Amino acid sequence: MFKDFYAQHGEYVVVSAEQASRFAKGVAGDYNPIHNPGARRFCVPGDLLFTLILVKFGLSRQMEFRFTNMVSADTPLLFSEAENGELHVSDESGKCYLQVVRDGETTHDSAAIEAFARCYVAFSGKNFPHYLKPLMEKHGVMFNPKRPLVIYDSMGFSLERLDGFTPGLALTRSSLDVQGKRADALLEFSIESKGVAIGVGSKKLVVSGLCHYDAAEMAAIVDEFYRLKAAYEAA
Which of 33, 47, 129, 215 is the most buried (most CB within 10 A)? Predict the structure, then answer.
């Protein structure tokens, strides 16, 4: 399950730039250039770290994820559980990249974990242009087109049950809180199984380097997104 996207070296997990990029594009549908091998500010997708937490520790009914730093390619990562039950993803020096608080029943059923991970990551990968573009346009702001920076801050969810579901996620509400040159985007979603609501969740993103919304600039960025998508799918 997801073994093509990381390597286990003793107690450490290592993700190469190529593995991270394949996950971003092939699983999340995320064509952000920051996940391209060779990118100046390359980082491993937060959704891959999210997925690996589920793979290693299971899926709990309530989980809160907080991303504290960006992970570079080939960084040895230790996935650990603290005495208080918190889960951490840290490097060899102790620098923490992800903190997870969980509660309630936990399942280690691989089918349930993979189904939930894939449906959440597919939803999460639609940050741009699907969710963020309309929000930015509504508020008359956008990220710097020359240095677009959208940071995955946190996410959480609560599930009513863990067994026998085929989950699907749908956006229920979105908002953008503009604070000078940055903004917090909140994406709220429902979790359903066969048309029945089984949970709720939300995701927070931080958009930095804001400037006035430029329709032509934004159209060019969106066009480039779909060009990258088509090129990847053709390959």
Answer: 47
- Residue 10, C-beta contacts closer than 8 angstroms, at least 6 positions apart: none
Sheet holding 59-67, edge to edge: 78-81, 87-90, 96-107, 59-67, 149-159, 196-208, 182-193, 167-179
> What token pair was written down for 84?
């208080």
Helices (H) and strands (E) in the chain, counts: 5, 12
Q: Tell me whether residue 132 is in a domain.
A: yes
Which amino acid type is present at position 92? E
Answer yes or no: is 102 within a domain: yes
Could you read off the pLDDT of 25-64 as tens digits, one per residue?
Answer: 999 998 888 898 988 889 999 999 999 999 999 999 999 9
In a domain, 148, yes or no: yes
Residue-wise pLDDT tens digits, 176-215: 999 999 999 999 999 999 889 999 999 999 999 999 999 9
Nearest Cα neighbor of 32 from 117, 137, 151, 141 is 151
Tokens 């993979």 appear where?
114
pTM check: above 0.85: yes
Contact 102, 81 (CB under 8 A): no
Length of the chain: 235
First to last CA, the chain: 23
Q: Is 203 part of a structural domain of the chain?
A: yes
What token pair was written down for 127?
A: 């940050």
Give the domain extent around 190. Answer: 7-234
- What CATH number is associated with residue 13? 3.10.129
Question: What is the C-alpha separation between 21 and 118, in angstroms, rounded?
Answer: 16
Domain count, the chain: 1
